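Complex 341.
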Amino acid sequence: MKALSKLHAREGLWMTHAPVPEIGPDDVLIKINKTGICGTDIHIWNWDDWAAQTVPVPMITGHEFAGEIVELGRNVEGLEIGQRCSGEGHLIGKQSRQSRAGKFHLDPATRGIGVNEQGAFAQYLRLPAFNVVPLPDEISDDIGAILDPLGNAVHTALSFDLVGEDVLITGAGPIGIMAAAVARHVGARHVVITDVNPDRLALAEKVADVVPVNVAEEDLADVIPRLKMKQGFDVGLEMSGNQQALDQMVEAMTMGGRIAMLGIPPGKSPVDWSRIVFKAITIKGVYGREIFETWYKMIAMLENGLDVSAIITHRFGVDDFEEGFAAMKSGQSGKVVLDWT
Ligand code: NAD
Ligand code: ZN
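Predicted structure with zinc ion bound:
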């Protein structure tokens, strides 16, 4: 089969031929139709310090996918050949206290497909049946291929009650923009999204009903009276990993505000803890998706009017993967989807 693989410990990815994976008794084999390119894949392409320390070579990359089941392991029940699906790319252990308590997303032994295990940028993917998420007919393969990052957005956005709340999202990357759409969908009052990249803010306005703020040009503090907010924001979703954005968020929060942090700072990131204490702010770190509560809620919302389709700005056949990665690396794109059919 064709596979997009990290063949060498240096910059780049290579299209190669690999054997179709053999499945075990509890696995399924999925024929891949569409895949999404993630920021993680860009780290692996660039072979930065994180990638070099984390990813063994050779490795088939990719973890955002939609496809169809073509083979079932002998123990697999409740799924069938021909079923369209996406799936959770975090492969969890079953031994930890967290897993045994049903908090699968908190299992410390989690391994990622396309990072620690052979991934989805291939014509076929082996996946534990446990990880499969069937797709209803209304959800296209394009959207199926971006459920992983939409799940990050949903998990973060649903961390706190948003109904009637004023929400600040820092970082209008694909995940921040999708989180804005989710915040709107579930009934937030104002949704303000910040970035320093005007193209990203323009895309945010296409996808969701948001107030875009370019913090390279405008002071976030000026937005609070403009929107007739009495104090600051009730809920903050940090989706940039940028130090300045986090500082601005802490300043812009109301007393007792709640912050969910998805963005990953590049290194240690200092925080003015006395501001956190005196403003009585709650901070929650967010990793991945809740398995499978996020998937359930995400699919229910997509079936009930949540529309994030405009976040997909580029589509390429898989043989043009280099163009897809270039679009993603430009910083101007939303999600980039590769077609394997
Ligand atoms: P992205 O890099 O595409 O988007 C980040 C955005 O932040 C960019 O548009 C950038 O211009 C913007 N930004 C930079 N400086 C800013 C500033 N001062 N103020 C406001 N915005 C600023 O990333 P993405 O794919 O949308 O992911 C968002 C973040 O979530 C990244 O940090 C990513 O590493 C992280 N992430 C975390 C998890 C997890 O499980 N915790 C999963 C996926 C992604
Ligand atoms: Zn991803």
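The first helix runs from residue 39 to 46.
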